[in-house]
Amino acid sequence: MTALEVAAAHVAADGVDPERLVRVLTWLTEPGRGADGLRRAVAQAADRHAVQPALLQGDGRDLLDQVVHPPSDDVARERVGRALRCWRRDGVRVATVTDPAYPDRLRSGWPHADVPPLLAWRGDPPAAVPAVAIVGARRATGYGTGVAAWLAEAASAAGARVLSGGAVGIDAAAHLAAYAGPGGTSVVLGCGHAVRYPRPHADPGGLFDRVLDHGGTLLSEQLPDARPHAGNVRARNRIVAALADVVVVVEGGARSGALITATAAADRGTPVLAVPGDVRAPGSVAPHRLLAEGAGPCTEPADLMDVLGTSAPRDAGGPGPGAAVSVLPPDVHAILAEAWPRPVPVDDLAARSGRSAPALLGALTRARVAGETADDTAGVRLRRAPR
Prior knowledge:
387 residues; 17 helices; 9-stranded mixed beta sheet; alpha/beta; 45% helix; two-stranded antiparallel ribbon
């Protein structure tokens, strides 16, 4: 093995040929080429041979090998080596589209469909499990983040993996609510693994570390140092759609990336749901457009579970018979119930209840331990819909 192939072996996922990985990286790191060019080149080879690659067997790999070649000079070798070093430093595993570790549902249609030739991930490898994509606006309202968290928590509690794009707003609310549940969560990045973005999520102890600590996954199609420019961020939406069994759009404007995710899902025949919102709110434009175009309404976790063919835990939509009495002070519970599903900032809760900060924080801690409340990106909310 060459030095580069030895380096590639340290990041290659199970079943990945280090030599082929080096050759694919040689193409992807060469200026003026890239993933789209590689896909088109393989598609042309497939057309010449009149075959649709049998991707887990000979044809797919043979066609890829016709296109990609080993690095031919020191400059090319250094580009490939730099990518491999970055991935190894961050504990990333990598698979090409023809490898068994690459998700089947994502590779569907290769090479004629817009499929990433390479996928890199940190954490647990992508698994073929029921998955829900919950997507929406970065500039989300309290209503939007509250609903996203409500749906994500119920989906994860039912064993479904929650997918989103790792951005602030709706994405973050969904990941935060899901990461500790049985289903967990996966983040599809709009940049390379070596780029710390969004900074609050990527910093030590942030959202991404919590996702990884609980068995989640960070995925990217990008080379490790790829920046989060608009093209990369929007491109990741098709990956979110491809990995999901159902897509839920919570909030978004007329040009929201959530519409890209929804369109990609619809093109694949994946169900799309939308959360109704305030008709006057800018963030309701995307979900209301989707509803007008035939998307299903999502007004509670049961709507989501019906599409998945499973059921929500009893407490996801409200307390069942014999539910425990609230451990919150009545006035605090009343404020949170009135705001449902919107979270209430702790400072606002203190001011409205007239309670001192230590007393309020103590009550909220007891309620969190009891499973009655949950932290949200914008404050604290009741976990169950008030009845």
